[in-house]
């Protein structure tokens, strides 16, 4: 064999290692799973996740894809339910043509899928799961959103230091997300000297909160913090205002959804909500994405669309650098340990600690005229 021919064969072999390890999708596409609540009570989150993922896919493919191969997204509907999440995770993880997964959104769903992704050796990158335990115990699980302990503590400090309020009622969803966030808030509230007049639980899919709100009204708090998702938070907000409760309403990122305003209507006005990202605070890249999103969907994207946009980008960037190999992708994400090794997305620089958690700031959004706007007072940490 001629030396030149041998060199070409070796070169082609290297390319094969980088871009031929996984099975191919349609037209040789690189397949990435996207898991989220695309139907069910949390479908408003899923809608934004889907739109954010598709916009990033389209942007990458329009620029030539990865090594000339397009990205193909495979969507898996977990309905926001841990049992369904296990089913979706099993489907994705055992399909060797899927090289990585964006998801899940709900913390309970990410926790349910975690052992499956770990067993099969595929990255799970969540743009929305904030429970402190999501990344614990698996080197295959990452997230590009902050943790609830940070978010809960941040909100307690904001209430005390920026709003100068003293007495707070807490109404929390009795699930992984609601409990974890509530615990973090209560711990920091004690340090800040806030008086917690009550910390009451509710169950997902409850629709009548009037008895609990009557009890809260009698305690006359300065603020009501709803630690849960937008569905119940909207009903709580609406029923609270109907009963004449005038205290400051507070929510966390689970309330940051167009669905909250759609259900609560004018009652949502003035609600303050913590969020991992605000387009108002983003740079030119974020403004460009905002424009493209609005042109395509005739609505504003939320923080979950932005974080999912970046999650797809993080995986695509990893694949471009190390190829569509599951372990190589994991190893690359694990090597992103400092700002100089971070992925520069529209939500800021993303890099990970040893657990797969990321360091991101929190913002506060104010609902004004039916829109999520940047609150006049921020507390960036």
UniProtKB/TrEMBL annotation:
Domain Leucine-binding protein: 30-369
UniProt cross-references to InterPro entries, sorted A to Z: Leu-bd, Leu_Ile_Val-bd, Peripla_BP_I
GO biological process: amino acid transport
Pfam families in alphabetical order: Peripla_BP_6
Domain of life the protein comes from: Bacteria
CDD domains for this protein: PBP1_ABC_HAAT-like (cd06349)
The entry's keywords: Amino-acid transport, Signal, Transport
Family: Belongs to the leucine-binding protein family.
Protein name: Leucine-binding protein domain-containing protein
Species per Swiss-Prot/TrEMBL record: Handelsmanbacteria sp. (strain RIFCSPLOWO2_12_FULL_64_10)
High-level lineage: Bacteria, Candidatus Handelsmaniibacteriota
């Amino acid at each position: 064999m001629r030396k030149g021919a041998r060199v070409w064969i070796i070169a082609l072999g290297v390319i094969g290692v980088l871009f031929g390890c996984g099975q191919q999708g349609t037209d040789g596409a690189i397949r990435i799973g996207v898991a989220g609540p695309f139907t069910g009570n949390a479908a408003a989150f899923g809608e934004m996740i889907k739109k954010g993922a598709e916009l990033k896919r389209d942007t990458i493919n329009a620029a030539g894809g990865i090594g000339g191969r397009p990205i193909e997204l495979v969507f898996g509907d977990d309905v926001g339910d841990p049992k369904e999440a296990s089913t979706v995770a099993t489907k994705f993880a055992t399909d060797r043509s899927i090289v990585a997964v964006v998801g899940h959104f709900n913390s309970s769903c990410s926790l349910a899928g975690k052992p499956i992704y770990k067993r099969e050796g595929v990255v799970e990158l969540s743009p929305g799961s904030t429970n402190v335990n999501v990344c614990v115990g698996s080197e295959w699980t990452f997230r590009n959103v902050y943790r609830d302990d940070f978010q809960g503590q941040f909100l307690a400090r904001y209430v005390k230091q920026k709003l100068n309020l003293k007495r707070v009622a807490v109404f929390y969803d009795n699930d992984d997300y609601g409990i974890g966030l509530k615990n973090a808030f209560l711990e920091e509230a004690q340090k800040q000297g806030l008086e917690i007049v009550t910390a009451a639980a509710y169950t997902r899919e409850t629709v009548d909160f009037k008895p609990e709100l009557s009890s809260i009204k009698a305690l006359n708090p300065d603020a009501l913090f709803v630690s849960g998702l937008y569905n119940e938070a909207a009903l709580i907000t609406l029923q609270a205002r109907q009963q004449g409760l005038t205290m400051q309403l507070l929510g966390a990122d689970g309330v940051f959804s167009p669905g909250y305003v759609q259900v609560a209507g004018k009652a949502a006005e003035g609600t303050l909500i913590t969020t991992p990202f605000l387009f108002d605070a983003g740079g030119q890249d974020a403004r460009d994405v905002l424009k493209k999103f609005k042109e395509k969907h005739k609505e504003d994207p939320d923080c979950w669309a932005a974080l999912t946009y970046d999650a797809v980008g993080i995986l695509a960037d990893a694949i471009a650098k190390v190829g569509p190999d599951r372990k190589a992708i994991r190893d690359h994400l694990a090597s992103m340990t400092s700002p100089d090794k971070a992925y520069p997305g529209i939500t800021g620089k993303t890099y990970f600690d040893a657990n797969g958690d990321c360091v991101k700031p929190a913002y506060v959004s104010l609902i004004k005229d039916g829109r999520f706007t940047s609150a006049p007072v921020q507390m960036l940490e």
